[in-house]
């Protein structure tokens, strides 16, 4: 059965691919944040495990291809590994259910190792599934066409690539929204089970859709794997060359010619072509090392930025959607506009030159990321070192005050109802505070633990100066763009404070609450109950990643009067500043990735496509391993420096590749194949003539 000149079975395959990619990219989009905020790992461990997982996903395709070609055939391989995949996604979803081990109901898992174990099992199954399916699905799609449908087949691969990007685009938008929901049985949490559960459900849908089409597929029997033959041929050549290493044996033109005792000339010629291309692949992993950091380092960078786009709030993991959006726009634009323009300018952009340009652009993107990082670092607060203490002063009274840090370290004037920034002191030197306000003065002896921030609240009362030293239990900027809020009661009476859904409880006069976390970018209603009279106010917007102390001064009518004192400034660098680096990297991907596959196919014989596909995916895997090595080996404490390091490494590799490309000679595999066909025909003719002669001689006897 066919439809629009395409085999009907194709539509099942495209829908299956869409669901599978949705499932994979959706899970990958929230993965690094799941490690960081749910499993409570630090940035470096989260990045490391993320890249290990991605590397695994690109190593397993070689396994998938072997199973499909030598044993089960493509259809059975896809079905059986999809089942493994679906189970893996389901386990991931279960592993992120907080209530699984949260017996004391405090909102965080009691036994994290259970969750870690489950999610690692899930990830391994997913890597097996996605990797095993990857090489089979596109090839299985190609198998559905007849030999005379060359045009439709090419169009199919374009639609296939689009369905991959459509799946990844939708899931990178939708999954972070699901993650940002609050859900949970007993305590409200970020909704990771939903963010992993929807991809799991879609994978099940993909499997069902694929099986429904079963009757229509053209199923090619497994023909043995060419990769095994190529490896054997190479192995035999090396062994044979080593056996004949003494001077008396004549040299051969190419080391692979030593396999000619056992393997036919055609296989040897094809293997030579493949090795020529694989040799060019050696520098390519460096590109993927940079490219795949979008999901790890760049997402973590976005968590320290301001995601307020007017009407909509962008989650940090949603910035990754910039890539598939741009891909869908850029692929047609580059093909239809940019390449023809370059041709008009009489510049000959060979495939290898395009790949070189792609590498150069990717290293530029990392320079851009480093520049953004430098801007972010300028806005980050400085926290005290172990031997330092920081103190800020809030004057709660109606008189000005002078605070002297003794012995003679510093003196500060604080206007009424105002606060200072944090001031740093060596803990060992600071002994006491002299506070003068109005016509009164007190001396307060202090002993600080060191390595912490403190707030000093002072007020000149009728009875004298009240001075309260608070311990600010904050050692880092709030994560995920959340805000920290606490209250100080500056009323004579006790007040019961709630903000949004969060209760701060009873605050006595001149006492402070602890900090509590609020989601970023919104305004909440503050309600203070004084002597059972409610008094309220809608707070100002706190932005992302800030900490504020809110001083409750009085209640006039039923409206609260408050002062906001900023403890940590909100993220001020806008997430839109990440767009340039994403744009440059996407241009790099279009020039690099699309060209790379095309080039590989044009330079190798038709039956070797699988070997090259495996080699190409291998470069992605190695790229992710490079991230692990570089990030592990470089002891760079500054994130911007690490970005610059990666950019420099890729630039160096880019230059090496340019030199290699310069010496590369393009070939036409079809010509070489035709030559072999010609020789074979001649050989057959010769054999036939010899046979005829022999027959003639026999008949004359």
From TrEMBL:
Compartmental location: Apical cell membrane; Membrane
Recorded superkingdom: Eukaryota
Transmembrane residue ranges: 48-68, 75-92, 112-133, 154-174, 194-213, 273-291, 325-342, 354-374, 610-631, 643-667
GO annotation, biological process: protein transport
Family to which the UniProt record says this protein belongs: Belongs to the major facilitator superfamily. Proton-dependent oligopeptide transporter (POT/PTR) (TC 2.A.17) family.
Record-linked NCBIfam families: 2A1704
Protein name in the entry: Solute carrier family 15 member 1
Species of the source: Podilymbus podiceps
């Amino acid at each position: 059965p066919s439809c629009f000149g395409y085999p009907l079975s194709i539509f099942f395959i495209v829908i299956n691919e869409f669901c599978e990619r949705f499932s994979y990219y959706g899970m990958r989009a929230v993965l690094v944040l799941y490690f960081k905020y749910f499993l409570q790992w630090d940035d470096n461990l989260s990045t490391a495990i993320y890249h290990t997982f991605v590397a695994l996903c690109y190593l397993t395709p070689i396994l998938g291809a072997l199973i499909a070609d030598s044993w089960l055939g493509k259809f059975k391989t896809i079905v059986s590994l999809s089942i493994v995949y679906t189970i893996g996604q389901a386990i991931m979803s279960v592993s992120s259910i907080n209530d699984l081990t949260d017996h004391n109901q405090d909102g965080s898992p009691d036994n994290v190792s259970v969750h870690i174990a489950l999610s690692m099992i899930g990830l391994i199954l997913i890597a097996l599934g996605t990797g095993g399916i990857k090489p089979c699905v596109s090839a299985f799609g190609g198998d559905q066409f007849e030999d005379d449908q060359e045009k439709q087949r090419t169009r199919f691969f374009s639609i296939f690539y689009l369905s991959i990007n459509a799946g990844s685009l939708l899931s990178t938008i939708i999954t972070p929204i699901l993650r940002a929901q609050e859900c949970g049985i007993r305590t409200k949490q970020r909704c990771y089970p939903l963010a992993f559960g929807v991809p799991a459900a879609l994978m099940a849908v993909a499997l069902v859709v694929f099986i429904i089409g079963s009757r229509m597929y053209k199923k090619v029997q497994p023909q043995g794997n060419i990769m095994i033959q190529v490896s054997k041929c190479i192995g035999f050549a090396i062994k044979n060359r080593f056996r004949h290493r003494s001077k008396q044996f004549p040299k051969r033109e190419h080391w692979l010619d030593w396999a000619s005792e056992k393997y036919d000339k055609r296989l040897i010629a094809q293997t030579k072509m493949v090795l020529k291309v694989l040799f060019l692949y050696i520098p390519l992993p460096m590109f993927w090392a940079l490219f795949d950091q979008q999901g790890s380092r760049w997402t973590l960078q976005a968590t320290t930025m301001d995601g307020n786009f007017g009407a909509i709030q962008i989650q940090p993991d949603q910035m990754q959607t910039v890539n598939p959006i741009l891909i869908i726009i850029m692929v047609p634009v580059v093909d239809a506009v940019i390449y023809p323009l370059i041709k008009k300018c009489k510049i000959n952009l060979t495939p290898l030159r395009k790949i070189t340009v792609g590498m150069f652009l990717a290293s530029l993107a990392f320079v851009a990321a480093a520049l953004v990082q430098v801007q972010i670092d300028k806005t980050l607060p400085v926290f005290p070192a172990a031997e330092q203490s920081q103190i800020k002063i809030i004057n709660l009274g109606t008189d000005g005050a002078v605070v002297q840090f003794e012995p003679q370290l510093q003196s500060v004037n604080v206007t009424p109802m105002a606060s200072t920034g944090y001031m740093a002191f060596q803990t060992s030197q600071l002994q006491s505070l002299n506070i003068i306000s109005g016509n009164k003065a007190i001396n307060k002896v202090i002993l600080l633990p060191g390595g912490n921030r403190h707030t000093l609240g002072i007020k000149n009362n009728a009875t004298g100066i009240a001075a309260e030293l608070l311990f600010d239990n904050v050692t880092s900027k709030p994560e995920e763009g959340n805000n920290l809020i606490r209250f100080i009661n500056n009323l004579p009476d006790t007040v019961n404070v709630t903000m949004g859904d969060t209760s701060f409880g009873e605050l006595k006069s001149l006492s402070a609450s602890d900090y509590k976390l609020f989601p970023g970018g919104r305004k909440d209603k503050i309600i203070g109950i004084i002597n059972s009279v409610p008094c309220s106010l809608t707070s100002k917007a706190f932005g992302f990643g800030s900490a504020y102390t809110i001083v409750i001064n009085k209640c006039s009518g039923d409206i609260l009067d408050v002062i906001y004192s900023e403890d940590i400034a909100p993220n001020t660098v806008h997430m839109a500043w990440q767009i340039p680096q994403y744009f440059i990297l996407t241009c790099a991907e279009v020039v690099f990735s699309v060209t790379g596959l095309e080039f590989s196919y044009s330079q190798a014989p038709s039956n070797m496509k699988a070997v090259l596909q495996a080699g190409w995916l291998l470069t992605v895997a190695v790229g992710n391993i490079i991230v692990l090595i570089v990030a592990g080996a470089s002891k760079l404490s500054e994130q911007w420096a690490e970005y610059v390091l990666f950019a420099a490494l890729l630039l160096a590799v880019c230059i090496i590749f340019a030199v290699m490309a310069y010496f590369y000679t393009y070939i036409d595999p079809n010509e070489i194949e035709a030559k072999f066909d010609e020789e074979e025909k001649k050989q057959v003719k010769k054999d036939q003539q010899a046979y005829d002669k022999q027959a003639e001689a026999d008949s004359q006897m």
